[in-house]
């Protein structure tokens, strides 16, 4: 993490009865969030994205051709079978992704991690190409559907409008994509629910003619059809062909849920809910929808096979027209337009995240890993958007043939993906068993697994091979149809084996003992705590109105006493002027009480919490001596400071008080009364074990402070190992922070001068070596990640550099001194840290003497 400081004294985030302390000379610290994708999708967004992903043009229009191919019985039966198989895949991928829902954690990522790099590489390019080529396909579909109303306008006009909207939305933070899909999914749900109700009404004779339909079309023209050949063999061919044609509406829907796991809030809690709801959506919308279609629309209706675009080919519209209801065809057509456009929007999102995921795992250029401050993988979105231009090929008939060939490459994409998902799950479960991973660690286990994965793997493998089986009948043989059905299969097999050849030193599959089940778990805890209590509707309602009525100033239902020094007069008279990414603009905000000196604040005690966010300078002053007068028997001390091993002095000084340790991740600059909060406020918090208190009592205190913090509109995650987070933050602070202070160059200038390889990375390696020796797990990629979080153009001036310029004491002991002491105890050599420490000690000596 990165830290900078600007002019002004420290004001501290507080929240029970809380006192916030700051040192007279302390300076506000700024945390810059990681430049990676962000969890901007709420549970509401994720639910409706998954919901909308199961209702598309396939159900509204494509189901008509499937009905015409096999008849109502085979249509319903095919959707039942496909729904069951897809649910087996879904439960498998949900179990995998909820165990480790990391940003960039697509199924190709898990393939690389749990099976082999070659499998992940092949899957990554399969997903990227499939999703990217579906974008122009859906844009073209939207234009063709609009043609239903106005055939005189060139389709290029509608394609351009749709393309600009899709690309524009994907360049915005992910919450805008989530919000858009939320409303479009809601529209599709309302439409399909309305159509289901209408079908029930027509079933019982509620239409204009009052004629009861019942299951008449199952008798005439019949429940099943024959295809190519006569008799039972013809019915078998029709059944199999219907099953294969019913795949398209389901394609990549389980994978879509996995992709959102990296950007949805609280994925371990929300993804299992999505999986449970997905089951009922399959039953109600797909199985229920096909039953409704079979009731209102005959399988021999000419419109189903006429090749018409939009609502004209929809079995729903055919049934509605047959019932004598007018005007609904345009309504259905409008929904089909939004469904196609929404699909294009989703496919561009999925393509960009697939490319981002490959960049994260090293299967694509690292530039595609770069994100904006809002968490948008900007270069991945731009690269994926270029495929959208292929939609213009459909304006010309000759070029359209070329586009169709490009599209044919992914005809078997869904089958290949689902087979790979089954392989990944089987290997994942094998690794869990071999490494004795407790069952409780898998938060979304399903009774269907692992048997469900074996069934889906075998079934989808067979269906992949049978995808174009009708072409092998002599009367149906066509080279073009054969290539259309099967060209994608050998192509992606070749991609796999080429990568396998280039990395032939790799084993065919990672050994179950060597599968990495640990890396990233600690990062996951940084974003989510599974121990948060679940609230019912009544509890949420009560808490919401309590916050509104008691604390309109949004301070988390706590009475706050803040201790200010140099900006006391300014804040006392005018309050803070806050511009916050979390809370918007707030003018004149003041804590409940403000005092210039700690002695004056004692009249407002005793305090439930004393929050310490001052600079940690043990070589300058003693924090226990400063805060000691404010500590009462019931007070819990909350440390929100830099460095490692900062807790023992507090525990020794206050053995009869609970000690909470926090690592802040926040971007905030304070200058007088002007506060700029430019990155989301996230605090990692844990209790520091005190043998005089039970774990339950310490957990209760930790939860109480976290609740206050969260009620104030910020985010506090309760952790079990706060030391890991301190070491992770130290990797950045001990390198960029110290080198910038010594050289007086900002982070970008350091990289321009070549200091990245000579000073920054060596310092980072020293910190990682000590952390690993101390028992903390860090991957080899952590250095690259830290450097990637500090782009040259950011030109950051870290806190120690600002202190050095102002000739103020720096936090060299907790950032360098303590890690060096730990290294000596563990026998780890840290030459770069010792070199930097010696230089900064000289600066510190001059500052302290000048101050005196």
UniProtKB/TrEMBL annotation:
- Topology of this chain in the membrane: Multi-pass membrane protein
Outline the segment boundaries, as ranges, of region: Disordered: 1-34
Domain Ketopantoate reductase N-terminal as annotated: residue spans: 556-689
Q: Known Pfam families for this protein?
A: AA_permease, ApbA, ApbA_C
Query: What InterPro entries would the database entry show?
Result: 6-PGluconate_DH-like_C_sf (IPR008927), 6PGD_dom2 (IPR013328), AA-permease/SLC12A_dom (IPR004841), APC_YAT (IPR050524), KPA_reductase (IPR013752), KPR_N (IPR013332)
- Does Membrane show up as a keyword for this record? yes
Query: GO MF annotations for this entry?
Result: amino acid transmembrane transporter activity
Keyword terms of this UniProt record? Amino-acid transport, Membrane, Transmembrane, Transmembrane helix, Transport
Q: Where is the Ketopantoate reductase C-terminal domain?
A: 722-844
Q: Which GO terms describe its cellular component?
A: membrane
Question: Start and end of every Amino acid permease/ SLC12A domain?
Answer: 45-502
Q: Where in the cell is it found?
A: Membrane
Compositional bias of kind Basic and acidic residues? 1-14
Q: Which domain of life is it from?
A: Eukaryota
So where does this one cross the membrane? 48-67, 79-102, 114-135, 155-172, 184-205, 278-296, 331-351, 376-393, 405-426, 447-473, 479-498
Q: What is this protein called?
A: Histidine permease
Protein species of origin = Colletotrichum scovillei
């Amino acid at each position: 993490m990165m830290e900078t400081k600007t002019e002004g004294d420290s004001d501290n985030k507080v929240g029970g009865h809380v006192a916030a302390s700051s040192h007279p000379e302390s300076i506000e610290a700024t945390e810059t969030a990681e430049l990676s994708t962000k969890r901007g999708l709420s549970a509401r967004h994720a639910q409706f994205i998954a919901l909308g992903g199961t209702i598309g043009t396939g159900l509204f229009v494509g189901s008509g051709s499937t009905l015409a191919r096999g008849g109502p019985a085979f249509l319903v039966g095919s959707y039942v079978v496909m729904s069951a198989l897809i649910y087996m895949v879904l439960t498998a991928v949900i179990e995998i992704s909820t165990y480790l829902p990391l940003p960039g954690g697509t199924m190709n990522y898990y393939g690389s991690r749990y099976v082999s790099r070659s499998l992940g590489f092949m899957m990554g390019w399969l997903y990227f190409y499939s999703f990217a080529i579906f974008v122009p396909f859906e844009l073209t579909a939207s234009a063709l559907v609009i043609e239903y109303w106005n055939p005189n306008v060139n389709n290029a006009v509608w394609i351009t409008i749709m393309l600009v909207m899709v690309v524009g939305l994907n360049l915005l933070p992910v919450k805008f994509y989530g919000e858009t899909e939320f409303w479009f999914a809601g529209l599709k749900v309302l439409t399909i629910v309305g159509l289901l109700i209408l079908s029930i009404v027509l079933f019982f004779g509620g239409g204009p003619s009052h004629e009861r339909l019942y299951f008449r079309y199952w008798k005439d023209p019949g429940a099943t059809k024959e295809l190519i050949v006569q008799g039972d063999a013809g019915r078998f061919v029709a059944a199999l062909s219907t099953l294969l044609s019913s795949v398209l509406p389901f394609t990549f829907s389980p994978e879509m849920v996995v992709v959102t796991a990296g950007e949805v809030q609280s994925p371990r809690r929300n993804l299992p809910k999505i999986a449970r709801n997905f089951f009922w959506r399959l039953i109600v919308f797909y199985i229920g929808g096909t039953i409704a279609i079979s009731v209102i629309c005959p399988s021999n209706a000419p419109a189903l096979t006429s090749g018409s675009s939009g609502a004209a080919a929809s079995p729903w519209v055919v049934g509605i027209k047959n019932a004598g209801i007018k005007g609904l065809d345009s309504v259905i057509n409008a929904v089909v337009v939004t469904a196609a456009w929404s699909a294009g929007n989703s496919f561009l999102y999925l393509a960009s995240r697939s490319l981002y995921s490959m960049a994260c795992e090293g299967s694509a250029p690292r530039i595609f890993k770069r994100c904006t401050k809002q968490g948008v993988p900007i270069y991945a979105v731009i690269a994926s958007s270029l495929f959208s231009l292929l939609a213009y090929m459909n304006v010309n008939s000759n070029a359209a043939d070329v586009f169709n060939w490009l599209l044919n490459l992914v005809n078997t994409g869904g089958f290949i993906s689902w087979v790979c998902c089954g392989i990944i799950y089987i290997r994942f479960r094998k690794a869990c068993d071999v490494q004795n991973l407790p069952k409780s660690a898998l938060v979304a286990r399903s009774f269907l697994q692992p048997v469900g994965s074996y069934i889906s793997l075998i079934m989808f493998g067979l269906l992949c091979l049978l995808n174009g089986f009708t072409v092998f009948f002599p009367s149906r043989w066509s080279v073009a149809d054969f290539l259309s059905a099967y060209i994608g299969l050998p192509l992606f097999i070749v991609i796999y084996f080429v990568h396998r050849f280039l990395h032939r030193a790799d084993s065919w599959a990672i050994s179950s003992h060597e599968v990495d089940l640990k890396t990233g778990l600690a990062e996951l805890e940084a974003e989510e705590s599974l121990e948060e209590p679940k609230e019912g509707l009544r509890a949420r309602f009560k808490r919401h109105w309590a916050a509104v009525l008691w604390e309109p100033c949004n301070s988390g239902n706590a009475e706050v006493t803040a201790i200010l020094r140099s900006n006391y007069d300014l804040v006392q008279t005018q309050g803070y002027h806050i511009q916050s990414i979390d809370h918007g603009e707030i003018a004149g905000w003041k804590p409940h009480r403000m005092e210039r000196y700690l002695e004056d604040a004692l009249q407002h005690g005793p305090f439930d919490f004393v929050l310490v966010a001052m600079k940690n300078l043990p070589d300058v002053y003693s924090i226990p001596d400063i805060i000691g007068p404010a500590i009462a028997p019931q007070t819990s001390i909350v440390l929100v400071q830099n460095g490692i091993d900062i807790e023992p002095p507090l525990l020794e000084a206050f053995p009869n008080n609970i000690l909470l340790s926090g690592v802040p991740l926040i971007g905030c600059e304070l200058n007088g009364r002007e506060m700029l909060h430019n990155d989301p406020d996230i605090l990692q918090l844990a209790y520091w074990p005190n043998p005089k208190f039970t774990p339950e009592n310490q957990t209760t205190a930790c939860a109480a402070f976290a609740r206050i913090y969260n009620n104030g509109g910020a985010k506090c995650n309760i952790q079990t190992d706060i030391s890991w987070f301190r070491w992770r933050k130290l990797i950045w602070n001990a390198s960029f922070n110290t080198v910038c202070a010594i050289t007086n160059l900002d982070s970008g200038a350091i990289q321009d001068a070549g200091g990245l390889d000579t000073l920054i990375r060596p310092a980072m390696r020293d910190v990682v070596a000590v952390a690993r020796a101390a028992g903390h797990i860090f991957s080899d990629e952590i250095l690259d990640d830290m450097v990637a979080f500090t782009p040259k153009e950011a030109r950051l001036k870290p806190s120690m550099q600002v202190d050095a310029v102002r000739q103020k004491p720096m936090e060299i002991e907790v950032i360098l001194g303590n890690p060096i002491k730990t290294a000596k105890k563990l026998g780890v050599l840290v030459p770069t840290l010792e070199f930097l420490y010696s230089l900064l000690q000289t600066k510190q000596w001059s500052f302290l003497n000048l101050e005196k």
